[in-house]
């Protein structure tokens, strides 16, 4: 396949399905045969069975990880409080650097973890693979192997108990609450059946996994603080609170909105039977990941949308990288296939005012 080329796909690939898989009910812990499960899954089931009485009394479905709750609360207070205090003191150079690190961090998730490493919706030369891996370290959202495993489980078992951030449990749970609770045992049980052998064979992925904490410290903490302090004399406090902590929290929320808002509100032009929806606000905040009804219907499309680079900075950058020869064999659903699926599952009467690029 020549550099810069786009591969038109007329039908879905084997492990993806354009329709929702059968709903997976979560069996009660006592009904699960624990002898075939990993020690981690067995321990998790016991924790569910032995949930503290006050957590059950208040209706929690999963044991709360209180340390994560404290970190989230304190982190948000420091991030937003620090931005209010030190944001007005920041120079224009610092705010420009904020946008650059926000973009790089986002690309590490969208172009990197999501579209390349998880869905393999395009191919990339080694220098770009390494760049995306390093950008992903800025985001600090788990290493690529774990992120992609959970995301493949999410696609295969969307809005079931096996979905790590099941939107049927409400906006807050899908947004960030799932990170404050123990995973439902079904997430681990079904996750063991999801193929991630390609990731385990990938030297870039495994290098990041071995050195993840060190890489995250350098690229997400040390450099965002060092660069403004050395290059234009910014104070340590401004660099720490604005360029590290506030930027980190904001990039987290932009990703979380894909799991929450884009699974609850928006248009369903492609498959009306699923929760994921096309949400322009989320697409803007998450640099292109908000066309979620399309993405869950056609998860192998590199653009995650039939609109190409429109409200989709990630696709714009991937197209530019294709011109440089760093990205190639971009997979895109043919317009004929999109129309057939919309006739069968979606709504042909709904329009966006955008022009398809397929």
Per-chain topology:
Blueprint: E1 6-9, H1 39-49, H2 53-57, H3 66-86, H4 92-118, E2 123-124, H5 126-139, H6 144-156, H7 171-175, H8 185-191, H9 197-200, H10 203-210, H11 212-231, H12 236-259, H13 280-285, H14 292-297, H15 313-323, E3 327-328, E4 330-333, H16 335-345
Parallel strand pairs: 1-4
Antiparallel strand pairs: 2-3
Q: What can you see in these coordinates?
A:
- With 358 residues, the protein is mainly α.
- It is 54% helix and 3% strand.
- It has one domain (63-345).
- It is built from 16 helices and four strands.
- A two-stranded parallel ribbon has the order 1-4. Strands 2-3 form a two-stranded antiparallel sheet.
- It starts with 5 loop residues before the first strand and ends in a 13-residue tail after the last helix.
Q: What would you report as the Rg, rounded to the nearest angstrom?
A: 21 Å
Give the distance, in angstroms, between the N- and C-terminal Cα atoms: 18 Å
Q: How many beta strands in the DSSP annotation? A: 4
Residues in helix, % = 40-55%
> How many alpha or pi helices?
16
How many individual domains? 1
Strand order within the widest sheet?
1-4
Mean pLDDT figure: 87
The largest β sheet comes out as: 2 strands, parallel
Could you give the order of the helices and strands?
A: EHHHHEHHHHHHHHHHHEEH
